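Quick one - first record:
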Amino acid sequence: MVKKNKNPRKGKIIDKLRNFKKDLLTIPNLLTSIRIILVPVVLLFIWFNTPLMRLWSWIFYTVATVTDFFDGYLARKSGTVSVSGKLLDPLADKFIVNLTLVLLVAMGEIWVLPVLIILAREFYIFGIRSLALENDLVIAADIFGKTKTMLQMFSLPFFMINQATLLDLVGINWDPSGVGYFLLLSSIVFSLISAFTYTRNVMNRIFGN
């Protein structure tokens, strides 16, 4: 006599965990995982705050951002775009961008106001994304969100390799933070637009308006 599953909900959870593990072992998601692992390495070298350590932070940060390009490219090319990847990829981006911003604010190297706006937007989107997941919706980032992330990622090296680092390592007396602020403030415009479009898409999918 075949025993029936007395707890179908538990079975669904186990199936989801198995699928998540299977998705995680794909090359694109492994690259995303590497990006997450490199975050504390980047932060540690920034925290040491010597010209050489700043250079190393930039090197590891560059490696991490390169994986951001290749994981998406490989996922699309190999047809292994997954729900896990759609969740992990933006999470990895938020880890490396937001934690680096917070550390640089704590070190007095970035204005606090733009970082507060960026973090407030992320908390808001987290709430909207949670609402979407409760309704079994996974909505990928749109062009505005991707542009926002790209601008933020491009802005950080101009704060990581600061004026003291340039002067000590290559003898150039130039403060690159002006370029960093231009990119960072530009990203805020796209972040607010993407927050609006993401909210509209979720509400349309849930309520059908």
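second record:
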Amino acid sequence: MADLTQFGVPTAGGNAMVMPKLQYRFRVQLYNFGLGNGSTLELTQNVISVTRPSLTHDEVTLDAYNSKVYLAGKHTWEPITLTVRDDINNTVTKQIAQQLQKQLNQGLQSAPVAGRDYKFGIVIEQLDGSQPGTVLETWSMNGCFIQNANYGENNYATSDVMQITLQIRFDAADIHGTEQVSASESGALTSGVMSIGAGNQAT
């Protein structure tokens, strides 16, 4: 049997390589999305890809005697992109339409009173590849809403499946270790031991 413990970078603890997380081992779950009755299994099963959260801090400059000092100002969570297959039963399309209807009733031109009336939660779980799968890491996003929905195109010159691309804006994100992440009926998610942010879904 080959000795694979000598291929890593030499360190004080040895030079064995560490198994990386793999991009394709993941699961996306949504809470309080659309009608909020827990019927988003089909959407989870039709996920193609999702971007992970990205955080940017504003820069605060303090001018001093002979130099400048820089501080971290307000932060911004950039929108994530969720791409899903458009299934032949129209289940995914229907769920997305229900969520967009919650955000704004196009027929009545009526909007919700507060964000908590339409915002939802998203959980992105990194899996280890086993069955049923151990969760290695969890990103949870609070106060989500669909900022842009792109339903793709029909094209005679391709054999590709129909896709829907959602750009989702959210208020805050938490990252957790291997502990379970729960969701309340309102879609607000609990914080974890590796939390790097916290948000209020009702804003």
